[in-house]
User: Which sequence fits this backbone?
């Protein structure tokens, strides 16, 4: 029987998950390190559910005003110009979610079986980190979020489907795509974070269904992990949006390069 994760392990991994879910650095690459370096047992399905619910709660709280504005526009409680912008943003979010959903249905089992190795995570952490740097340097960074169109949403959504491969980073690849399309850093990050809502919600619902089918879900551990993940994610979202225009993406690019090299070295040395 697999060892149960301890309380310190749950807190550590929940904080890591919450911080890295929205930063463009790959949560998969970070969650694999503690297990590899300290021999920690697998955190289990309950942790995965809790971490997703915590991340979802954080993004819902942070963007509550934007979500309320979209909801108001959909039921006709906004001015004509504002309503059009909010309805278009909602349509873009729906459209951008479709490619990731289709990819998960078609390729989810293949990815789980073949692409969860440390070598793959190291390679994707490096490659998509460098791609993020290229987008930050080459993108025009002049477009605001109110210029987002359905074509942009479809392209960003197609990029998001690549995040099915571990190490890619969902936020990283969507921000990269938005930067290549000429959006400002903050606008790219804001749309990426809003786009996380349906993706995390759908993933969380699927995992909750599996958890409820288990004989005795560890509700205490779930609540602890959800709270820690929510707090870390809320802080990450707020700080990133506040500082991204000033610091840019290069600190995250260099961090990803170092992380990818570390993971590659661990894999080559047989540590993981």
Assistant:
């Amino acid at each position: 029987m697999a060892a149960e994760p301890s309380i310190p392990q749950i807190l550590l991994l929940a904080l890591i998950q919450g911080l890295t879910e929205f930063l463009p650095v790959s949560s998969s690459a970070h969650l694999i390190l503690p297990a590899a370096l300290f021999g920690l047992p697998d955190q289990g399905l309950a942790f995965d559910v809790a971490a997703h619910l915590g991340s979802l709660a954080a993004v819902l709280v942070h963007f509550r005003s934007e979500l309320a504005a979209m909801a108001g526009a959909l039921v006709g409680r906004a001015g004509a110009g504002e309503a059009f912008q909010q309805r278009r943003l909602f349509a873009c979010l729906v459209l951008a979610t479709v490619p990731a959903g289709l990819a998960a249905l078609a390729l989810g089992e293949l990815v789980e079986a073949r692409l969860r190795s440390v070598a793959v995570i190291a390679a994707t952490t490096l490659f998509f980190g460098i791609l993020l740097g290229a987008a930050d340097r080459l993108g025009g960074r002049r477009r605001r979020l109110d210029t987002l169109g359905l074509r942009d949403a479809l392209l960003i959504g197609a990029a998001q489907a690549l995040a099915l491969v571990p190490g890619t980073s969902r936020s990283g690849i969507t921000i990269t795509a938005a930067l290549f399309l000429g959006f400002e850093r903050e606008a790219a990050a804001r749309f990426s974070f809003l786009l996380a809502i349906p993706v995390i919600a759908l993933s969380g619902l699927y995992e909750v269904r599996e958890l409820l089918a288990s004989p005795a879900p560890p509700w205490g551990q779930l609540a602890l992990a959800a709270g820690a993940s929510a707090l870390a994610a809320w802080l990450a979202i707020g700080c990133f949006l506040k500082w991204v225009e000033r610091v840019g993406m290069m600190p995250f690019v260099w961090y990803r390069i170092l992380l990818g090299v570390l993971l590659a070295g661990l894999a080559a040395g047989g540590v993981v």
The chain has a mean pLDDT of 88. The chain has one domain: 43-268. The CA atoms of residues 96 and 233 lie 22 Å apart.
